[in-house]
Amino acid sequence: MTTDIDLEQARIFLDTEAALLDDQDFEGWLELFAPRCRYWLPISEGLDPEEELAIVNDDRATLDARVLRMRNPATYSQSPLSRTSRLIGNVLFDRAAPQVPGTVAVRARFTLAECRNRETRMYAGRLDHRLTRDELGAIRIVEKRVSLVNRDSALHCITFLW
Amino acid sequence: MSGSAPPPPAPSPGDLVHADRVHRRAYTDAALFDLEMERIFERGWVFVGAESEVPAPGDYKTATIGRVPVILSRDKDQGIVVLVNRCMHRGATVCREDYGNTSAFKCLYHGWTYKTSGDLIGVPFGGGYGKGWDKSAFSLRRAPHVGSYAGLVFASLTAVDVDLETHLGGARKYLDLMRDNSATGSLDVARVPERYVVEANWKLQLENVVDGYHPPFTHETAFEAIAREKGHNPATTSTQGSGARCATLGYGHGLLDYSDTDRGYSGKSSDSALAHHASLVERLGQERADEVSNADLQLLVFPNLFVQTGRQHLRVIRPVSVDRTEVYAHPYAVPGGPEDVNKAQLKAIAWWASAGGFGQPEDLEALAACQRGLAAPMAEWNYLGRGLHREVALSELETSGDVTDEVAQRGMYRRWIELMVEQS
Ligand code: FES
Ligand SMILES: [Fe+2]
Predict the structure, then answer these.
(1) Is B232 touching ligand 1 by the criterion CB < 6 Å?
(2) What architecture is the B46-149 domain classified under in CATH?
(3) Mutation to probe ligand 1, out of B85, B112, B121 (largest number of atoms < 8 A from CB)
């Protein structure tokens, strides 16, 4: 397994991921994740979701369930689905992140507009991806952390996918 | 330009609540909301925080009682006090952190400094107020009534009609089950909560936490996710006749009691849970230990605290305005309890009781929908009569019914009337 991922490839990967989400291709998005993965939104330090309370803390099984739930109209907080539009920028390798063999750490910034029921909300924050390549050489997400700037505020429903 | 018309007077609270119904204006009238803050929150017992949130001398937590910013402070000499977070000079909040530890609260504006007991100890540039000026008259205002039960701290900013134990009424029996489950007699409450906004009146949120009627409908897809993972759909234990029950416990407190059903949440049969149970048997005897281990409770302590034992967390309900409420949901660990279970709560709370969870968001959606619908003036009443014909008085304080019945909600509004009308 090689982890040769250069910054341009990482940038294209993040943009592709964002496009899948904004196009509401949630199943396509899910395929970007490794079979063992973490998808989470911290409230506080963002260091370890096993030790601190998070807004969202999914492993692969709960992430699968989350995507499945999005498609059921009885999931009232996503019925109708949120429309989202996000911009990803400031994509850099995260030199400060711990070294994990077989992976690279990429940090970025995002702004996201969400509209549901004719109400629009703006979100912004930091994205931290830990990426790897699978046996076929495709880039896969081992961990995705979404740190909202307003993560410790009282939040409205944020059950759309980040 | 002429001044705007004065706001319409609040409706008379006594006209808004009947035995089986509540008028829409109870949820929509801004003047009435102000009256509620005064008569329910700024008078009477309100939950402020857990002792475990401020374990060491000098520790503090900021909170609100109704609209009033307060500090839950553990003074090294006087113990736990509840201070009004308002500088006695010209109004600034003297403490601006969620939590911390300090030897004094120093106001950021002109530097007045208060001990953690609230006493004013420092006024910069002496002599500015002339001879005989009495500093002690400028101590931070303190809640005159503070009490704690099972490690939970309650306070009243003005008068109380009853002492804390009386106020807790029939809720004590259930708080005792939680207390006895803990080696220290209290719960270890986390300092980082989930925080979310409910676009609805605070009473709709209160009704919801002890509403055993809605889960199979509102939470259909969350329950399906549980069923796929665990092979057991909680909807089957949240239906009429499941053995679970809804009760009112006096003084507005309410309960959903799932102890006689198996919701499959708690992992009661894991090795660590069995070991914990064995230690309870040793400490409490078989019968009480069984009762304690079996408890699966959702308890509303009127007017602003909710505790759930299945997913170990408490929620603080914070009214903001007539149509906006915030909720802080704090996980807790049970001291001496199974470590894996305690640790699993962090994930369980994020999974259900967060703005991005599988449970809470549907409640937020439902409550916002209620608030919108209640704008319709031609449909005046919310009907809370379910099970009125079949509820059973179990004791002087506790009346119980089927889990789908609106027993707890009716009890809430009986207390609401007492506080809003009879004692005003
Ligand atoms: S307002 Fe606090 S010192 Fe002046
Ligand atoms: Fe609910």
Answers:
(1) no
(2) 3-layer Sandwich (2.102)
(3) B112
Asked if residue A14 belongs to a domain, the reply is yes
**Tokens in use for B302?**
């009127």
Q: pLDDT per residue over A31-64, tens digit each? A: 999 999 999 999 998 789 999 999 999 999 999 9
Q: How many Å lie between the alpha carbon of A155 and the closest alpha carbon of chain B?
A: 4
Domain-embedded: residue A132: yes
Ligand 1 atom with least separation from CA of B87:
2
| Ligand 1 contact, B129 CB (< 6 A) | no
Containing domain of residue A26, as a range? 7-148
Nearest CA in chain A to B369: A76
Q: Which of A44, A68, A159 faces B192 most closely, judged by CB atoms?
A: A44
Q: Does B190 touch chain A (CB under 8 A)?
A: yes
Chain B residues whose beta carbon lies within 8 Å of the beta carbon of residue A156: 196-197, 199, 355, 364
Does residue A59 belong to any structural domain of this protein?
Answer: yes
**A156 is a domain residue:** no
ipTM: 0.96
Residue B170 near chain A (CB below 8 Å): no
Q: How many CB pairs under 8 A join A and B?
A: 97
In the structure encoding, which two tokens stand for residue B103, read together? 């030897």
> What is the pLDDT, as a whole number, of residue B263?
67
Contact B350 A152 (CB under 8 A): no
b/e code B204-225 from CB counts within 10 Å (16+ = b) = bbbbbbbbbbebbebbbbbbbb
Atom 3 of ligand 1, nearest CA residue:
B110
B183 ligand 1 Cβ < 6 A: no
Please give the share of chain A, as a percent, with pLDDT higher than 70: 98
B1: Cα within 13 Å, side-chain hemisphere: 3
User: What's the burial of B409, exposed, middle or buried (CB within 10 Å: 0-12/13-18/19+)?
Assistant: buried
Q: Which structure tokens are listed for A46?
A: 């963002």
- List, for residues B401-420, the tens digit of each pLDDT value: 999 999 999 999 999 999 99
**Minimum mean pLDDT range among A122-136, B2-16, B67-81, B410-424:** B2-16
pLDDT at B175: 98
- pTM, rounded to two decimals: 0.96
Fold (CATH) for B190-422: Naphthalene 1,2-dioxygenase Alpha Subunit; Chain A, domain 1 (3.90.380)
Q: Do B358 and A65 touch (CB under 8 A)?
A: yes
Which residue has tokens 């998070």?
A54
Residues whose CB is less than 8 angstroms from the CB of residue B60 and which lie 6 or more positions away in sequence, other chains included: B54, B71, B72, B73, B74, B95, B97, B99, B100, B101, B102, B116
